[in-house]
Amino acid sequence: MGFLKVSKGSEPPKAQVAQEVFDYIYEQFPSPAGSDVERFLEIGHFESLAIATCLNLEDLSLYVLAFAVDESAKRIYKISEKHFVAWMAGLLSKLSRNAAPPTRENAYAPLFAAAHGAIVDLNKTIRSNEEKRSKFYQFLYNWCLKGNDASDRVDSAKELWSYFFSASPVSFMAEEGCHKFTAYMCFPRIHQWLDFITILNEKATESKSRRAAVEHSGISFDTWTQLLLFAQLDNYDTYDDEDSWPVAMDDFVEYVHELEESKKNVVVANAPVFRAYPLRELH
């Protein structure tokens, strides 16, 4: 009865289709490179990639995609051809047998839809699994900030923190949380932290040493890593600067205390003054 089986001999190999998908995105933004140099999807490609996968450049969804492709990626804002093709080939093997074959004619829509689904599933895991969430947070540093000498490095870090942390408790319905690519963890003082980092950066720009500027701007590896734990502190009443916190945390706690003291002084200064006047005798 073998003649009843549908032959798939005419279908291109998964690796070939996955390579075509990479080329499809890569060709939409010219990136000069020699034939012997590994190619990457870079910032110029991200808009096309986001559109194809129905992701957003205004949240962390594309970062989750990069994390899915290669958790250990360390090239700043680069997705390697090798890892992207391997990831796409893996998604191809999971496509439903009833799905239309992804081709250039349909803009590889079935495969990009599968990629979107994989990102949503991974996002759900990041939200529910503390270890995965910590890995993703560390990935953000390695993929965006480590070795980054760009003038907007601090702004990039602040943007990532503003996406990752929430000033209010994180509470989403299960389905909503899967599709939400911001607010992974509560840090009640995130806005004060971002203001503080801005102040540090302004002071750091006066330094002649690039390394010192990185340390003093509050974006060192140690500060980035420890902020996950620091964000969980309920208050700073028992904070001890003799503990092994980065200097930036010590300075931030002092900054917060100064703000609170300043607010108290304002309240006292604006408090109404009641004077005692002698009562006149009634005649």
TrEMBL record:
Domain DCUN1 as annotated: residue spans: 17-257
Entry protein name: Defective in cullin neddylation protein
Highest rank taxon of the organism: Eukaryota
GO cellular component labels: ubiquitin ligase complex
GO molecular function, one term: cullin family protein binding
InterPro entries assigned to the protein according to its UniProt record, in alphabetical order: DCN-prot, DCN1-like_PONY, PONY_dom
PROSITE patterns: DCUN1 (PS51229)
Protein purpose: Neddylation of cullins play an essential role in the regulation of SCF-type complexes activity.
Gene Ontology terms: biological process: protein neddylation
Pfam short name (any one): Cullin_binding
